[in-house]
Amino acid sequence: MAGFNDLVQKAFYLGVGVASYAAERAGTTLTELRGQAQKLADELVARGEMTAEDARRMVDEMVARAQQPTETPTNPQPTQPRRIEILEDEPETDPEAQAVENMREQIANLQDELRRLKREQ
After folding, report:
1. pTM to 2 decimal places
2. Helices (H), 48-94
């Protein structure tokens, strides 16, 4: 049992380490984003395309948007089971489709008639 306890302990420490590393990387990435946004804003202010107040607001908005959790469409968190609706095929009302179906029936009837006549000979 001592081996199992060591394994569980190592797995726990690994999980804590991975979580710590992910949090550190997220903080670093956010800091990098803020730096890049600030450089862009400084360039726009230097060119006269934006005021300093607008630049500060833009940087704050970009960082806030980056901090918001994003929904992944491939892995949604449903609150209840998804409903599946089964639709029945409606009969075709297309006149051309109906005419084609009638011709197929006539051909099948004629083929049956031809086979019957060949057997009688």
Report:
1. 0.37
2. 52-67
